[in-house]
Structures
1.
Amino acid sequence: MKHISHIGIAVSDLDAGIALYQKLGFTLEAIEEVPSQKVKVAFFPCGNTRLELLAPTSEDSPIAKFIEKRGEGIQHLAFAVDDLPASLTEMEEQGVQLIDKEPRPGAHGAQIAFLHPRSTGGVLIELCREKDGGH
Ligand code: ZN
């Protein structure tokens, strides 16, 4: 685990979320739709980390389900790793339950995989191999 790649924050209304974080002093870097996750993502850089506002684009989006159950707020923490397949193997060897056994494409050209919150104390953790290899 190298550093926090990003913090995923679930919002029901992306424009309202963007306006809020701009008010808090952050600068919007980009907006990207990730069809595989049925989300629209707004990126706010913060040092070598980013805040990612995640808004559902459909009712069966994982983010829509999250908001329905728990309301808006922090949804996941993503840690940057150098070698995602190796990290996943290591996690499995440690007895950590994986949601994704194989890396899959995430926002920003990254490869990502989620660990199951059941085996990580209720925190949804994402491992993220950033496109540029990290900062
Ligand atoms: Zn993420």
Note: DSSP finds three helices and eight strands in the chain.
2.
Amino acid sequence: MQRPPFLETVRRLYSFDTEIQDFRLFGDGHIHQTFLISTATQPYILQRFNIEVFEYPERISHNHAIMLCEIDRDTLPFILPLPVANTRGELFSFIDGAWFRLSPFVPGTCVNEVKSTHQAYLAARAFARLIEAGMHIPASTFQEPIPGFHDLDLRYQQFSQAVAETQRSVSGDLKELVDFYAEQGTLIDEYVSWKNRLPRRMTHNDTKINNLIYAEDGSEVAAVIDLDTIMAGYVMYDFGDLVRTVACTESESSVNWAHIRVDQDRYDALMQGFQDVGQGVFTPEELESLPFGGKMMTCIMGLRFLTDYLKGNVYYHIRYEQQNLHRAKNQMHLLMALL
Ligand code: GN1
Ligand code: MG
């Protein structure tokens, strides 16, 4: 891959002691451009930030600065690769009109589909442990990098608006999906009722399986990554996104509709992971809310994919025109299995 000019600025801004020896695109994220860069002594992850999705990078810096200060990372059983400050002490660097962020690279394997119930259990324990590590921080000190990110009520309204304004013809498969999601009003009511009863916590908010790095041999979680959406939320969000991505028999990008089911063993392993960390730590109501998390997070993701399709694919990276429609269809099948 050809070396872009920003690399030299990165080298200077982070005062690397040697030349950058290796530079390549890395990972499967839907949002940022991620590179793996290595000096002679250390590998790093460099990300060019998607400012259209994350309009407020300063809010992310605010949240990460709190975490750098408040979370005792040495006592965590995994690495939390928060960004490295540049020579000006900033967690983001503005270079040639774009925002960049550097963080330590953690070796290991990133999986898109879990291979065992034990792996599912480890994932749940790690994400629950992260919530526990931030429980002493008042949730109100966090800012919202994406306003209303997991507000199901708001996402439903945005979806309804997209249906009203879309340039696409709502027929066939699209109509079936629009009708299905439009009928989920009871989930929205249930969400609002949980919201009024649950405490807000520092949550990760993007607990899909590929936001973990496992040790090469799969025996433990080496790191929890993708920390941009950490903000105040509910424990059920983090449990729910795990259910969506781990307890489903097919991945989020699968079009094998007939094979989309809930793997009960993996679901139970996720629950066990959250219970093992959360008993006596989370409130009984928080533990009771977990099953609803799976439903609401699957619904919210389906709504978001479909909204993006209706708006002409302006948010998620896609590999083909119908991909957001297919993702929404995939989530519909999973939601039907969860309801
Ligand atoms: C996005 O960046 P990535 O792929 O980890 C999205 C999540 C969705 C996910 C669906 C900021 O996450 O909310 O769950 O795609 N992140 C943002 O795969 O919108
Ligand atoms: Mg990611």
Note: Residues 284-310 form the longest helix (27 residues).
3.
Amino acid sequence: MKILVTGGLGFIGSHTVVELQQQGFDVVIIDDCSNADEKVLNGIAAITGIPPLFEKIDLREKNQVVDFFKRHNDIEGVIHFAASKAVGESVREPLLYYENNIGTLVYILKELIQKEKASFIFSSSCTVYGQADAMPITEDAPVKPAESPYGNTKQIGEEIIFDTCKVRANLNAIALRYFNPMGAHPSIEIGELPVGIPQNLVPFITQTGMGVRGQLSVFGDDYPTEDGTCVRDYIHVVDLAKAHVVALQRLLSDKNDTNFEVFNVGTGKGSSVMEVIQSFERVSGKKLKYQIVERRSGDVVEAYADTTKANKVLGWKALSSLDNAMKSAWEWEQKIRA
Ligand code: WQD
């Protein structure tokens, strides 16, 4: 069974390719390498022993997408990670985000609806909820006006898939709304490789731990939370990757109730920025240098998942603790800086 993984050299994509291969799927990766290194293929092969097929394609080039699906007409499913994902950059460059995150989605869906049957997993995000009214967040929490063009592309992407599934019974889709992915594969052959200054908390912490960054800036400690810092749902990237395989298997085996379903993918547990710092200090045995600074605009106070639906319907549950995920992130950081 051949599966296309777009953005398969990226952080979540590469970990998902490993899990797919270990479940016996044939995988072909498309990546434009704008935010990932081709060397990630070696890391995947080091874990699974199977070098995945790889094509460097810019999915914004419609003809390249059409040609690819002609050459790989045996693709039965697509897991679509390829997208730009830096919230701040999306505010500065909205058209780059609408072209790259929406245009490419349309081109892929246009190829899939020509098949007798196609399964499609969409990489979505908890940002669609904005600041949800109640915690933990369930899938029927209202989608709020997006705080950034990046978040808007996830909302629009889900609407495009929903509208297409309504009139194409041959297209079966699941949107997975991620919370905060972190960590690295236990083999430390693959992990997170942020380009430039990390926007996300965990890689900034591990780089600070390695002395690559002077100190962590904590964006505000005056929020209405227990210790004043924001709360998020940090999920081990391998748990997240496994959720994609389970979701794909649900579609391939026609177990889905409707042909477009949405699932929150988190641990169901909220952790504050300070708790994440303390986790790092426990697993590394090092004191982390940090300073409290002003709030970052666009940050929501709290976001952690109600995972009942994924647990019950997908039969999937995140297994890793925060410390175990942090340990893998720290081991990975030490390895790439060695
Ligand atoms: C987490 C917490 C920050 C950095 C974003 C995207 C989301 C998804 C994950 C793609 C917040 C605080 C952070 C730092 C800090 N991306 N922080 N100092 O903002 O929850 O989610 O990344 O899918 O879509 O929105 O993640 O890691 O940036 O921040 O204090 O140097 O850490 O204020 O409270 P976020 P994050």
Note: The chain has a mean pLDDT of 97.
4.
Amino acid sequence: MQTEIALTDNELNTRETVNRAVALLRGGDVVALPTETVYGLAADALNPTAVAKIFEAKERPHFDPLIVHLPNKTMLRDVAEVPAEIAKTVIQLVETFWPGPLTLLLPKKPVIPDLVTAGLPTVAVRQCEHPIFHRILKHFGGPVAAPSANRFGALSPTSAALVFDQLDGRIPLIVDGGACARGLESTIVRILPGTPKPIIEVLRPGPITEDDLKKFGKVVFVKRNEAVESAAPEAPGMLAKHYAPRTPLRLLESPRDFSPDPGKRYALLSYRGEEKDGFLDLHDWAEVAVMSPGSGRVAEAGIRLFHLIGQLDKGGFDEIIAEPVPDRGVGKAILDKLRKASV
Ligand code: TXA
Ligand code: MG
């Protein structure tokens, strides 16, 4: 199969690209689309044959469920139940963060095929903020299932070129909507009733942070349990091993943890490229990539993370050494990705 990249950099080509993408979705095919987080591989969420093509192209195991993306907020009740005891919080979160990088886990309605949710009684839903994605969904008129557009276990792509690297020959079309503004996958939460406040369980940290969520409930980060995962992941989004580049990557807690093997070539993935952080002068690095040069802002580091790991992965190094970032805000999501990428 020939994989084409369709542009959206002026109104004429955008119109044509949107029409092609919608035609593919209507025809039960897959298409890679830009979102504000990472590129997604989309198919008609209500068509199991179309959804099966996502699993096939990604080589994704069927136990790993997909996120359903809605063209508008009102469609939430068509695909998911909103239990009365958490309805107020769900509505507040949707009104505050949609369209945007927040995914909610809710009981699914029967219209969503079991293939989408991997047989789970819940469905993960969000409304994406990217203008091209939004336009395509509005024309299409229904929900699409869309996981990140990478091969299973590999890095999530933050540009059309990175999708092409992974899925060339496996899908008909990649819609190029530019580099992703957030660079990290959506925050996934589950809401539980609680007194005096509802509980917001963060199953996957992401661009919507604890600070953003805490006015709506008590925020709890769910720790991964590898014993449970290796058997049958109850919440497969929490698989411990994920995002692995081909080059081994190791996240260090402190510069003291590094003892290089002579003769090996190491690249450093630095947070802000500052000598005072103790990593830059630690070794004669074969290459240094900086996530947030100068200022050290975690949001910027998040945007550049997957792109830089992807670049370093092409450099033929023996190992990529990653500096830790602050464990706050989007930094929590970055640390989560680096831990999952670590050997
Ligand atoms: O930002 C994003 O969320 C991107 C863009 C494309 O929207 N999508 C994305 O999808 O990251 P994916 O499939 O790569 O990650 C979704 C995660 C998966 O790890 C999956 O296991 C988990 O969400 N998930 C989906 N439905 C679930 C469910 N019903 N229960 C538990 N986990 C679920
Ligand atoms: Mg993914």
Note: Residues 225-232 have pLDDT under 50 and may be disordered.
